[in-house]
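Render CBS domain-containing protein in 3D.
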Amino acid sequence: MTLIRDIMTDEVETCSLKDNIYEVAVKMKEWDVGVIPIVEGKRLVGIITDRDIVLRCIAEKNPPSSKVEEIMSENLFTVTPDTTTQEAARLMAKEQIRRLPVVENGELVGIVALGDLAVRDLTDNQAKTALSEISEPDDEQSIH
């Protein structure tokens, strides 16, 4: 049984509540990532995705100087390093999310992405299932 600790990325670039959206976007570009966790100290308090920036900042005509807390998602789904990849894949599919922060004792210790599951032979079917369910539009979210 593969655990999240075996496949997670433990070098995660973060921002704080003092940062603004421009600074988050610059870090995304520098690190070539689509998500930046927001922390207070080491405690995870939110997350910002590239999609959040587009929908909650640019499309709403908010300036890049907007504070991260105005844009970030606070209702977070997380896993621990001891979560199995099967449990993580089920959570990703159920909640239609592609990345999960990894938290231990309230502190951010890593992140796991759907791609991390996909590159593992043991979890390839789990990743395919999760991706198909994540990519399936919700009735509420579908565009008509």
